[in-house]
Amino acid sequence: MRSVLISAVVALAISILFTPIAIRSLQRRGFGQEIRVDGPQHHITKKGTPTMGGAVIVLATVVGYFGAYLFLIGQGRGPTASGLLLIYLLVGLGAVGFLDDYISIRNQRNLGLNKTAKLVGQLVVGISFAILALQFRNSNGLTPGSTVLSFVRDIAPLTLGTVGFVAFALLLISAFSNAVNFTDGLDGLASGASVLVFGSYLIVSFWQFGHDCARLQEAGCYSVRDALDITLIAAAAMGACIGFLWWNASPARIIMGDTGSLSLGGLMAGMAIFTRTELLLVVLGGLFVVVAMSVTIQILVFRLGGGRRIFRMAPIHHHFELAGWTENTVVVRFWIVTGMAVAFGLGLFYADWLSVAELE
Q1: What are the boundaries of each domain within the chain?
Q2: Does the structure show a pLDDT above 70 at 43?
Q3: Residue 316 φ then ψ, to 5°
Q4: pTM for this one?
């Protein structure tokens, strides 16, 4: 338990202390956010706010994870395949987002990498992660990922096969990295919601660690490789997002940009894959799903309906702004929605454990 606290506290400290340094550095270099010309007009005041702050979140998460191992190495433990693969996913997608942010700033437009280049970057990172997730079998025969589709645990009859797993993992990673990217449009919205989702995965993975079939042959136990490492990264990511939120809350002094949103969304998907809770992520990250769906629906209706629109503007948080809600009202209410989604998802996870335990 101390290692989990160390991971969270170290990441929090790095994030909250280094973000002001990043703000000053980005301001000196003129790395400011460009604003959509068709967006809510009060957003124009945010033009020039330092962006690429997600680099601090990535750095803090990595340092928090490895910082925890300064304590664990004394116990004869070292980083595991699951932990290192999640770090790879976080950093890899962060690099794609960094390029997108940098090009957007250089061109002084709210457009970075073109769709093809961004897709190629996500494909390379996502496919390599998925392939590696089926390697590194431990002494109990477990690999970090599983070819069996999962909800709150593996759904035994639904085996995807190797190719199916790689395709599904890529879809989940791409979907959630883009969903968090869409959500990152209001001060503190994506970072605050991410705190809650990573907090839920801290609980899920730590519960799995405490009920690991490799250590305890009990009813409802979990066959998850390296559950403690997933907990450490969830704690580090949560701490990093809390520290960043201190500076990202309204009025934001810094914006995470694609550097943060792509990496955080991908990390959520990676944790879902490794904890065997892939479909549960749709519940825990319900806000991100709704935001992404609002964009998809808006595009489909516009193209198929002769230019009609369902929402005043997509993503959906801008719709509520144009309907008269203040930015802070939208953010707080969306945090509440995320909290309810997380509570419901954790309830489903715990109810499954109770039901299996009672059956035995």
Answers
A1: 2-359
A2: no
A3: -65, -25
A4: 0.93
